[in-house]
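Lecture notes, unit on binding sites. The following record was shown on slide 14. It pairs a sequence with phosphoenolpyruvate.
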Amino acid sequence: MEILELSQKSAFAPTTIPLPSSKSESNRVLIIDALTEGKNEISNLAEARDTQTMIRLLGKNPPVYDVLDAGTTMRFLTAYAAITNQNKVMTGTARMCQRPIGILVDALREIGAEIHYMNVEGYPPLAIHGLAEQTSDKVKIRGDVSSQYISAMLMIAPILPKGLEIELEGKVGSRTYIEMTLELMAKFGITYSWEENIIKVAHQSYQATEFMVESDWSGASYWFSLLACADSGELFLKGLKEDSLQGDSKIVEIMSHLGIKSTFNKEGVLLEKIPVTGLKEFDFTHCPDLAQTVAVTCAILGQDAKFTGLESLRIKETDRIYALQQELAKFNAEFNEVEPEVFQVIPSVTMPHEVRIHTYDDHRMGMAFMPLLTKTKVLMEDPEVVNKSYPSFWKHCQLAGISCTNHES
Ligand SMILES: O=C(O)C1=C[C@@H](OP(=O)(O)O)[C@@H](O)[C@H](O)C1
Ligand SMILES: C=C(OP(=O)(O)O)C(=O)O
């Protein structure tokens, strides 16, 4: 197995981190582009494997869409293949075939798509046989499993001859991602209404436009964490906007309690250290991808904190709750479920002189535990796991003066 050794470092000279582009924005814009009449001018698409996979599959249009481990690519392309009336097999990694998709398949079947499960009911792989005729213009979708099903349906809604009305049922998680989808659709000329739990999109055409993808706020979060855990330093994160389409820009507010001041200018955001004021409770319902970053930060900083809104973490790239519990324990921190769906970080009191982190095929495990190098030597297993969203992550660590050495073991 490949291991990356990260040597201990806790002071960071001012450095600019170029940051990759957002894979969430990129993957939406690529679907919208494929559905647009006319030619869009899209720039700054993400280097993320999830986005490169989407580009490749849309470009080559093979009979089997193998999305690897990309959730958005799986969900968005499933709806796209149906609306464009294609015969397609949708598949991915073993883990992807354990991530549920039944809610999206039911919604697509409701509007007339023919889709069959090839193995286990409710999970990929799927055989799609297109959508010859729209049989309904209304669907109900529960909102507490994954917002990606809702985003997938929304992006195809304008193309449906009768448009679409979506009734969101129950608690809605990752709401900021649904908002991102609708705001992006609006930038490409689509009008919609969202009142209470009903979103309505009439039949209409996407208008060709120019769009530049913003830098990735989820990827930015690891740099906030690094500086929060460091003794001193300053980092400039390029290409981020204060008024972002991405809900993970919430990291600015979260980190303002964990010792980071953010100052925006037109190029990006400057991070500086300020005293930790501490916050006892964090809710990740609408920013689940930040949970690992903040859990590790609290554990390292000695902040005992409660976390809620983690329900979706068990069905992501890995069971992120289990993975956090296992890896935090390696430096004597804990992540305990103290009440149903309420987790408490018990920070580390003693730090081993080196910690080997297992990454569970989850890019965010690798990136979230990187800031541990402010306290001890870190041995990161399977460092290429970061390629899913941030292939240049370790290169950017080197820019920040972190020494990274590859080993086999
Ligand atoms: O729509 C998106 O781009 C995403 C939505 C979120 O998933 P869920 O809606 O499944 O929480 C998030 O975790 C994922 O990384 C990206
Ligand atoms: C959950 C994630 O991605 P996806 O669901 O698109 O695989 C993620 O990037 O953290």
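Take-home: The mean pLDDT is 97.
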